[in-house]
Amino acid sequence: MPGSERILILGGTREAAQLAQTLTDDGVDVITSLAGRTKEPIPVAGETRIGGFGGVDKMAQWIIDNQITKVIDATHPFAQQISKNAAQASRIAKVELQRRTRPPWEKQDGDNWQLVESLEEAAEALPKDARVLLALGSQYLSAFNRRSDVHFLVRMVDQPPAGPDLADHHLVLGRPSSDWREEATLLRDHKITHIVCRNSGGTGAYAKVIAARELAIPIIMIKMPA
Ligand code: NAP
Description:
Layout: E1 6-10, H1 14-25, E2 29-34, E3 47-50, H2 56-65, E4 70-73, H3 80-93, E5 96-99, E6 113-116, H4 119-125, E7 131-135, E8 151-156, E9 169-173, H5 180-189, E10 194-198, H6 207-215, E11 219-222
Parallel strand pairs: 1-2, 1-4, 2-3, 4-5, 6-11, 7-8, 7-10, 8-9, 10-11
Helix pairs in contact: 2-3, 5-6
This protein binds NADP nicotinamide-adenine-dinucleotide phosphate.
NADP nicotinamide-adenine-dinucleotide phosphate is lined by residues 10-13, 33-35, 37, 52-55, 59, 75-76, 78-82, 85, 137.
């Protein structure tokens, strides 16, 4: 019942922000937790807290101290540690846990996807002299640093303290566009021949998949974890 619940949303995704908006519009007391990976996170409705909890036990204690009645895990499907922690912490704190999963993208007519299981497999799949959009967070780039025979276009939200450890790369700052035409312009401007991305599902990062389809650019697609 609105008013009696206090919900912790584990966020960092567009879906989590939409959920926070819907629940606060319904009068529910919501607090969204963000990991603090970006300097200027997109504003979220309701309260927010930023930064890691410090592991399972501290998350459980935080849930108890903040009188949380329900945890909704709406984190990114590839953010696996926080989901494991949320499952254990809500058990310890004896609160309900709801996991919002999103289905992976389905291949459409015109898509040219090579499915791989890991970043390492993706790195090996790239042909020599490819020009590649690496649509991955900064913490996932090291798997590609042996490919000095490939040019990488790297997109990051914030300026990193040190450049990516990739022999041949160009860094662009900004978030992915939700307009496939803008993503297509980026791909064309940088003469991109391949994209490496993870099958994250959802709408937030899908525009580049449409752009690749329109421009007939192959995607090395890392499968969503089970
Ligand atoms: P992760 O590997 O699953 O989590 C690593 C640690 O970061 C967690 O143990 C936790 O630290 C902290 N953490 C993660 N999400 C948190 C949250 N929502 N609130 C508070 N602490 C959080 O996570 P990740 O892959 O680095 O992703 C971090 C965040 O970015 C997630 O919230 C996710 O939704 C968002 N995101 C991730 C991706 C991706 O590709 N992984 C893409 C888009 C958005 P403590 O153990 O100290 O509590």
